[in-house]
Every structure is written in C-alpha cells, then in structure tokens.
C-alpha cells in the first residue's frame, strides 16, 4: 500500500485595521482554552502531501455540509464557531478531520467612569476637589478587557492602573477608552471638569454703619444685618449664621438684633462641593438706652 503523509495548517490572517492613540492592532487572543478573534479575521487552510499530489481541502462550518475550500474563511456574526477540515489527494486518501474552535468578538467593551468623594454637576461641567478619586471600569463579555487607557489635559495616554486624583485647581479635560483582548476599541469618552478646593468668601454687612467709640462697635436695635457669600467656581450651596455661640442655622433673610448688650454674629458658607469657609465673626453692642437730657435754670 502506498504510504502518504498529510499535514494541514490553519493560518490566521488579520485585515490591517490599526488604531492609533494607544490601542493595539487587531489580533488573535487565547485565554488558555480557546482562541478569540475579531470580525476582521480571515482563516486560511493549507495542506501538504509528500507522496502524491494534493487534490483539494474540504471543510465545514458549524456542522454544515462539507464543501471544497477555495479561499480564506470569514465570519459575519459573533460567538463560537467550529471549522472542521481535511485534505484529499489525487489517489483518494483523506486525512483525519481536524476541528478548530474560535470565538468571534466584534464588540468593544462597555465602560463607565465614577467619582468617589466630593462631586457636583453644574450643567455639562463636572466639579470635583483634590480629595475626589476618579474610578474607571470596563467589561467585555467575550474576549475580555485588555486594558483601559486614560489621559489628562495634554498628557499622553497611559494604562489605567487605579483611581485617579487631580490635585491642581482649575479646569481639566480627561479622556478615556478601553480595548478588549482582540483589539476592539471603545469610542473615546471625554469629560471636562473643574477642580475646586477653595471655599466661598463671605461678608456680614450692617445696613447702618456702626458707631465706633473707644474701639468698640455700637448700633441700635433697628439695624439690619445682611450676610452674603460668593463662590465663582462651583457656586454657593448654603450660608449659615450663629448668634452669640448658638448652633449654626441657615441664613435666609436679613435680621435684626433687638436685645441690648454685647453680641457676636458668626457666619460661614459652604459651596456645592462641601468646601466650607472659615467662620467670619462680627462683634458689637446694641444700645437701647436713650440719652438723658437735663434742663438747668439760673436766676441772676
């Protein structure tokens, strides 16, 4: 009997589809159990016969009928696929059928960005503080996530390895994307934000100017006090006032102090990120005692 030796090779070709930025080329990935390939992958079959001439290569896809191989095989749908293949020479010898399994993955990962710590949304702008941490997360149900990449402002893209903190006050731009293990890349996600670690400024203003005698402030019971706060970044969330050491309460309208004697008003403001101003203190005396007038008469 004539002896024949048949070999069959499976060659994986990838269309040139290179992502710039920090992403890699599309590629074949094996997780230790099975190959994963992108939708752009082409699968080529080849065979050799050392004793007679090769007639044809035959194959089947996912258990379908055997057909003659005429060129690279492509898949148009995701999921697991099976290629069965064998070779036939001119003398009718048929090689043992071999099986190749592959999972086609044409979908990029899903991802999300979250912030732990102070955060405030003002329109389309995200406000955070230097105490805030940015967490990035991605998931891919087929080949798995290869990496997440992030860049801040004009810096380069770098692999994300853990929470990101931005300590420099002012406006910033962050961009991120994720790549799975066969090279599918998400769209770039861009967010513009502002780091605000500065508390509001605050003022206590009496409607009538104090009368200053001997370095002490005096006023009457009809004087109104106005408290105002300003924060030009994330904005003022709340203004609080305290009277003579009492608990702080929310300031809503101007007030009067109608009890005679020495008083201290304290005020502080909180912005939308929780930055709290240092208490501002104003001390004064309320004078409710009218002056005495005397009439003196003399006869000459």
Describe this structure as you would to a colleague.
This protein is mainly beta. 0% of the residues lie in helices and 50% in strands. It has no helices and 25 strands. It has strands spanning 6-14, 29-30, 35-37, 41-49, 54-61, 67-68, 79-89, 98-104, 110-116, 119-122, 125-128, 133-139, 145-152, 158-159, 170-180, 189-195, 201-206, 211-213, 216-219, 224-230, 236-243, 249-250, 255-256, 261-271, 280-286. Strand 5 and strand 6 (67-68) form a beta hairpin.
Write the layout of secondary structure elements.
Layout: E1 6-14, E2 29-30, E3 35-37, E4 41-49, E5 54-61, E6 67-68, E7 79-89, E8 98-104, E9 110-116, E10 119-122, E11 125-128, E12 133-139, E13 145-152, E14 158-159, E15 170-180, E16 189-195, E17 201-206, E18 211-213, E19 216-219, E20 224-230, E21 236-243, E22 249-250, E23 255-256, E24 261-271, E25 280-286
Strand content: over 45%
Low-confidence stretches: 1-24
What characterizes the major β-sheet? 6 strands, mixed
Shape category: rod-shaped
Largest beta sheet: what is the strand line-up? 2-3-8-7-5-6
Terminus-to-terminus distance = 165 Å
Mean pLDDT: 88
Key features?
Immunoglobulin-like; six-stranded mixed β-sheet; 3 domains; 300 residues; mainly beta
Describe the structure concisely.
This protein has 300 residues and is mainly beta. Helices cover 0% and strands 50% of the residues.
